[in-house]
Structures are given as structure tokens and as C-alpha cells.
Design a protein that fits this description.
Blueprint lengths: L4 H15 L7 H8 L3 H13 L3 E4 L5 E4 L8 H8 L13 E2 L2 E2 L3 H19 L3 H5 L37
Antiparallel strand pairs: 1-2, 3-4
Helix pairs in contact: 1-3, 1-4, 2-3, 4-5
Length: 168
Amino acid sequence: MQLTRNSDYSVRVLLFLGLHQDRRISMLELSQAHGISRDNAVKLVRKLASGGWAKTIRGRKGGVSLAVPPNQINISEVIRHTEPGPMLQGWQNGSRTNGIPVSAKRLSELLDKAFEEFYAVLQTQTLADLLTGQAAQLSTLAPVANSRNLGRAPGAAANGSLNSANRH
């Protein structure tokens, strides 16, 4: 099984919004915090808004925020909404892949069961479950940089000087 980056970033965006429920997040902040283009951030937010999890407000004071409380955002539903098709690369029930027939009944049943169990595990989790204890780990949500360190060189302190660990 393989999740697309779309699903990965969609969950990350929801986590980011969940950690900042006190305000709207600009597309620029969202894109910088996750190291993605503004256009990709807009596409992700549109997809999340179409699922009812994010809401946007246009204009100068606009931005994006959660549309519903985190305990009403089911991770399984988000993944199902953001995944474009079969999660196993090359798998399509009843078709041929790379010249090998994959319509064998036993394999088909096994993969169907695996997908069901995968989603059953995710069905037990909400965004609120994922947010528990995450406030202290904000930097793990942003692979490139968190919003407080945008534009600074790695290792640079808030005042622009290097910390003692980076001096030689």
C-alpha cells in the first residue's frame, strides 16, 4: 500500500490547522510551513474544504481554518477522500498488471481484506486523537521549517546569531 503525498499533506494541513484553532492561517504561511508551493496548498485546502473539514475566507484578512471541531474529523474519511484510487500500486481488481492476471479469487479476497482492515484502523482515529500531545511537537508537522523560523538559516537563533552548538 502506498499513500499519495496528497493524503500525507492533507493530514498534515489538518494537524497544523488543529494546532492553530485560535486564528485563520494564510495560504502563504501554510505553504511555507510545509515546504510546498502556494498553488499546491490551495489545491489541498480546496480538497479539504470539499470534504467539509476546512473553511476558507477570501480577502486580505482571509485564510483557512477548521470547519468542524477536531473530534469530528475522522482520519479514515480524510484518506478515502484524498486518495485518487487503489492504494496498492498497479492493483485493480479483475485486471491485468504487467502481464500478470490479478483476478485470482484468493489474491483478490486477501487484498480486499487488507484494505478493509487498513481503513478500520484509521476509522478509530480522529484529528483530536492525533492532536493529543502534539502542541509540543509542532516542528514535526513542518518538514522544512515551522512558522517561527521561516526565512532563517538553519541553526540561526531568533536574533540572527548562531547558537553555541553551531560555533566552532
